[in-house]
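Thread: "does anyone have the structure for this chain?"

Original post by V.I.:
We have the sequence but no experimental structure in hand. Need at least a predicted one for the grant figures.
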Amino acid sequence: MNNLVRLTARIAQCGVLRYTPAGIPVLDLLLQHESWQEENAQQCLVKFEMPARLLGKQAEEWQYRQDAVIEAEGFLAQRSQRFPRPILRIQNIKEYKG
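Reply from O.Q.:
Generated one for you, tokens below.
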């Protein structure tokens, strides 16, 4: 099964950098996306917000980058055992230079 997401979005919010019990940096983000997509031969405006999470060195590097436009690749997973809604777990992130 595949679970790969590639998204261009703006970082609307950066959470506070925190650390797991093992000392791994974690940064929660809120991403905003807006684009025109074709569906059923019609153009439609797509807008949404999506929570995302960065781990490790990338979390430290992106903690002060609110409002940056990014390209992110990762996978969807539930936020936690208590909160089953999906979150984008970012594996690769770079500034969008579109």
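V.I.: this helps a lot. The first strand starts at residue 5 and ends at 14.
O.Q.: and The CA atoms of residues 9 and 33 lie 5 Å apart.
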